[in-house]
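FW: tagging you since you asked about this chain on Friday. Here's the raw sequence from the shared folder, copied in full. Didn't touch anything.
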Amino acid sequence: MNFGIKNKNVLVTASSKGIGKAIAEQFAAEGCNVAICSRTKEDLINTSLEIKKKYGNEVIWCLCDLSKARDIENTIDIVNNNLGRIDILVNNCGGPPTGSFLEIDDEKWRDAFEQVLLSVVRFCNLVVPGMMSREWGRIINITSVSVKQPIENLILSNSLRNGIVGFAKTLSNEIAKYSVTVNNIAPGYTLTNRLYELAVIRSKTSGRSHEEILSDMSREIPMNRLARPEEIASLAVYLASVQAGYLTGNTIHVDGGLVKGLY
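HL: got it, structure written out here
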């Protein structure tokens, strides 16, 4: 299928590894001009070189701490200076710390708010006006299956990622008339470093190995396996496509059937 996005300019945040990296790769495979950012220079360089080797695309990379407004502004400036504009914005970020309600203090709430929710608001503030003036754009937010079905011991993620859903739905209605769409992807358990870290944390409190924890996660899923990052990325590319131009304000979970609810 021709998605109609060849030569479009794409920024994927937190994209030097995991789901973000897989998304950047699939956009490069579609012939897009790709920019990536994260906090780790070495990972950014390695990822940009890997994508160039696979697809021949030069990749713009930027150091960016998503919790810092100045880093976000600098990232947008670098991408605009190199590519001219941003047509597709994929807001992705690492998960905030684990913990129950009584374990999370005000500072952790503030830090998670800036990293998870305010980063999305800040990037959109800088990108949406240009999309509106050109009357075309795609915003895709990577959240978590926790927005559909909260995950134990992840109160920060459960709370703040749902804030993204509310923000995205409101924004989508405000800018739909400009042919700018806003959608969310809610991945289920996916084979990433984040999932491995969660399994290690659970193993410390349960007395079981992290391998057993990961196996248990797989058994919770009707498909009886964990997702691959590429399976999340394929939906991101579709949501950015011309064919998905009438699809906005939605949250789609990619979870192998994990969510038990009807919606």
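FW: The beta strands are 9-12, 33-38, 60-63, 88-91, 137-142, 180-187, 251-254.
HL: agreed, and The chain has a mean pLDDT of 94.
FW: great, closing this out.
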